[in-house]
C-alpha cells in the first residue's frame, strides 16, 4: 500500500514532528491567516501540528486525513487542550464538504503525496470548488533539489515505555520523466532487543517545477499567484531554499 501512514508510521511522525514543533511554517500560516473571517480547511491534517496552533489563535479550522491513525493523535491533543476537533477521514481526490472555505492550506509538502499529474490537477480543481469567492489556497512544496539527497538513512526514537522505534528510508527508484520517487520506509519497534512489530510503506512523492505548478493553478482558474521561498512572503524562491509556498486566490 502506498503512503498509508499506519500505526508505526504515525507514531514515528508524532514523535518526530509533535505539536509545538515548527519549521517556520506555524508562524507563517498564522501570519498569512491573520484576519481570516471564515472557515479554514487543512487537508492531510496529520497529527495537528499546524491545526492546533491555528485553533489556539482563534481560527475556525477543520481538517481531514486519509490515515485514521494520524487522526487519532490529532483528536487526542485537541481533546487534551479543549479544542474543537472537526476532523474526518477523507482523501485528497474524494473529499467533500457542503460548505465553502475562506482558505485552504496544505503545509509541509503534503500535496506531493499525489503523484499522478491528472489526479493532482483534479485535486487542485476540488480545492477551487471548495473555496468561497475571494478565498485563498496556500500550499507548500519541497523544491526539486530536495529529492536528490542521500539514497538511504536510518533514524531512531525512544518511546515513553522504554522501546525503540527505528525508520530505515531507502530510495529505490527515481523517475525523472514522471518526476516521482519511490522509497521503501521500514518501521520497526524493538523492546529489550527483540523486534515486536514492523511495517513497510512504499512511499511515493512527486516534485513540481515552480513554473509548472504556477501554470497548474492558473489553468484551474486561480489568480494573484504569489510564490515565496523559505516562508518569506513575496520573496521569490532561490536555489537552496528548503520550501516553496504558493498562495493563490479564487475569484469566484
Task: Describe the 3D structure.
Its EC number is 2.1.-.-. GO terms for molecular function: methyltransferase activity. One of its GO terms (biological process) is methylation. The structure is a single chain. This protein is of the alpha/beta class. The chain folds into two domains: 7-143 and 207-250, 3-Layer(aba) Sandwich (Rossmann fold); 145-206, Single Sheet (N-terminal domain of TfIIb). It has helices spanning 7-16, 25-32, 51-56, 68-80, 117-129, 210-219, and strands spanning 40-43, 61-65, 87-89, 101-106, 131-141, 152-158, 164-175, 180-191, 194-206, 223-229, 244-250. The strands form two sheets. A seven-stranded mixed β-sheet has the order 3-2-1-4-5-11-10, sandwiched between helices. A four-stranded antiparallel β-sheet has the order 6-7-8-9, with helices on one face. The longest helix has 13 residues, at 68-80. It is globular, with a radius of gyration of 18 Å. The chain starts with 6 loop residues before the first helix and ends with a strand. The mean pLDDT is 96.
Summary, kept brief:
With 252 residues, this protein is α/β, with parallel strands linked by helices.
The level 1 CATH classification of the largest domain is Alpha Beta
Give the CA-based shape: globular
Number of domains: 2
Mean pLDDT reading: 96
Helix-strand makeup class: alpha/beta
Low-pLDDT stretches: none
Give the CATH architecture of the largest domain.
3-Layer(aba) Sandwich
Q: CATH H-level name of the largest domain... which superfamily?
A: Vaccinia Virus protein VP39
What's the helix-strand series?
HHEHEHEEHEEEEEHEE
Main-sheet strand order equals 3-2-1-4-5-11-10
Q: What is the third-level CATH name, the topology of the largest domain? A: Rossmann fold
Helix content: 10-25%
What is the radius of gyration? 18 Å
Amino acid at each position: 500500500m502506498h503512503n498509508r501512514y499506519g500505526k508505526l508510521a504515525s507514531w514515528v511522525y508524532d514523535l518526530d514532528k509533535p505539536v509545538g514543533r515548527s519549521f517556520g511554517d506555524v508562524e507563517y500560516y498564522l501570519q498569512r491567516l491573520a484576519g481570516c473571517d471564515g472557515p479554514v480547511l487543512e487537508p492531510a491534517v496529520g497529527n495537528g501540528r499546524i491545526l492546533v496552533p491555528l485553533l489556539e489563535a482563534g481560527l475556525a479550522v477543520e481538517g481531514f486525513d486519509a490515515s485514521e491513525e494520524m487522526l487519532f493523535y490529532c483528536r487526542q491533543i485537541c481533546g487534551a487542550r479543549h479544542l474543537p476537533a472537526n476532523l474526518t477521514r477523507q482523501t485528497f481526490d474524494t473529499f467533500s464538504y457542503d460548505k465553502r472555505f475562506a482558505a485552504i492550506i496544505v503545509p509541509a509538502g503534503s500535496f506531493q503525496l499525489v503523484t499522478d499529474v491528472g489526479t493532482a490537477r483534479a485535486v487542485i480543481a476540488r480545492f477551487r470548488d471548495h473555496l468561497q469567492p475571494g478565498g485563498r489556497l496556500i500550499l507548500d512544496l519541497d523544491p526539486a533539489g530536495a529529492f536528490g539527497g542521500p539514497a538511504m538513512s536510518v533514524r531512531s526514537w525512544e518511546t515513553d515505555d522504554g522501546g525503540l522505534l527505528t525508520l530505515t528510508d531507502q530510495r529505490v527508484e527515481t523517475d525523472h520523466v514522471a518526476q516521482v520517487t519511490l522509497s521503501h520506509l521500514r518501521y520497526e519497534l524493538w523492546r529489550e532487543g527483540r523486534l515486536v512489530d514492523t511495517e513497510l510503506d512504499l512511499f511515493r512523492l512527486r516534485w513540481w517545477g515552480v513554473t509548472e505548478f504556477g501554470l497548474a493553478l492558473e489553468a484551474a482558474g486561480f489568480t494573484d499567484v504569489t510564490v515565496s521561498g523559505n516562508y518569506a512572503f513575496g520573496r521569490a524562491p532561490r536555489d537552496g531554499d528548503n520550501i516553496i509556498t504558493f498562495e493563490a486566490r479564487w475569484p469566484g
